[in-house]
Amino acid sequence: MEKHEETVRAEVVISGRVQGVWFRGTTYDQARALGLMGWVKNRWDGAVQAVFEGPRSKVQQMVAWCHKGPRLARVESVDLKWKQATGEFGGFSITY
């Protein structure tokens, strides 16, 4: 019998050269491929912000990906906060 994996929420702010390098679009593709819920958006300060909810191992994979991002990105830092999952999302979206 398969053990049920804990559902978690990660809130991240990714800083560096992360706008204008297809970071949101690639994050969307990665999150959808992992079956995660949540959103990603560009912030006014040049960072990218995202919320991921799903099984802990899949969310950890997504957070690890955020440390490198797409090919043209230069990630300088990832501010990560673990929270309790809310189940509020019906999918994963790009927010403006």
Structure description:
A 5-stranded mixed beta sheet has the order 4-1-3-2-5, covered by helices on one side. It is an alpha+beta fold. It is built from 2 helices and 5 strands. It has one domain: Alpha-Beta Plaits, CATH 3.30.70.100. The N and C termini lie far apart (42 Å). It is globular, with a radius of gyration of 13 Å. Helix content is 23%, strand content 41%. The model has no long low-confidence stretch (mean pLDDT 96). Strand 2 and strand 3 form a beta hairpin.
Quick recap of the structure?
This protein is of the alpha+beta class and 96 residues long. The protein has a single domain, classed as Alpha-Beta Plaits, CATH 3.30.70.100. It is built from two helices and five strands; from the N terminus they run βαββαββ.
Strands side by side in the biggest sheet: 4-1-3-2-5
Structurally, how many domains make up the residues? 1
Percent of residues in helices: 10-25%
CATH class: Alpha Beta
- For the termini, the CA-CA separation is 42 Å
The unreliable regions are: none
Order of helices and strands: EHEEHEE
Strand content: 35-45%
Radius of gyration, taken over Cα atoms and rounded to an integer in Å: 13 Å
Structural class: alpha+beta
What is the annotated CATH architecture? 2-Layer Sandwich
